[in-house]
Amino acid sequence: MKNLGNTIKEYRTSLKMSQTDFAYRLGITGASISAYENGSRLPSYDVLIKIADILGVSTDVLLGRKNDKQVMIDVTNLTNEQRKSIQEIVDAYAFCNKVRAASFTENLCQTDQMKLRQKTAGEKKETEE
């Protein structure tokens, strides 16, 4: 199991961010970042939340409580209709992945995706008119 320090370092380096830059963004010292990453110190709750925000993950992911494969998308500025369309697309892809996993033909997924794209394009035209 990964520890908090390793997880922070992994995400920080994946963003090509130096410890110095990361510390500056957090408003703390580089020595603090080093201590967090090598496990000799733990960040406060406030700093942990800032770390998560800067790295674009949840605190649960940093703490190893959730898988980072689950993606959250900010749909705050979208209408309810737009959110519904996005959910339909996500559901269609999830269905296709299940179909593939069950060894059905890929054509079924492509047909479903094409139908969904046509439906979404039709709805988009209606909202533009």
Describe it for me?
With 129 residues, the chain is mainly α. The chain has two domains: 4-62, lambda repressor-like DNA-binding domains (434 Repressor (Amino-terminal Domain), Orthogonal Bundle), CATH 1.10.260; 80-128. The protein is 68% helix and 0% strand. The protein contains seven helices and no strands. The chain has helices at 4-14, 19-26, 30-38, 45-55, 59-62, 80-101, 106-128. It is elongated. The mean pLDDT is 83.
> Could you state the oligomeric state of the chains shown?
single chain
Principal-axis shape: elongated
Q: Determine the strand fraction and express it as a percent band.
A: under 5%
Name the structural class.
Answer: mainly alpha
Largest sheet: none
CATH class of the largest domain: Mainly Alpha
CATH topology of the largest domain: 434 Repressor (Amino-terminal Domain)
Summarize model confidence as the mean pLDDT: 83
Q: Regions with pLDDT < 50 over 5+ consecutive residues?
A: none
Q: How would you name the CATH homologous superfamily of the largest domain?
A: lambda repressor-like DNA-binding domains
- How do the SSEs run, as a string of H and E? HHHHHHH
Question: Any idea what the CATH architecture of the largest domain is?
Answer: Orthogonal Bundle
Helix content: 55-70%
Annotation field: number of helices: 7
What gap, in angstroms, lies between the N and C termini? 54 Å
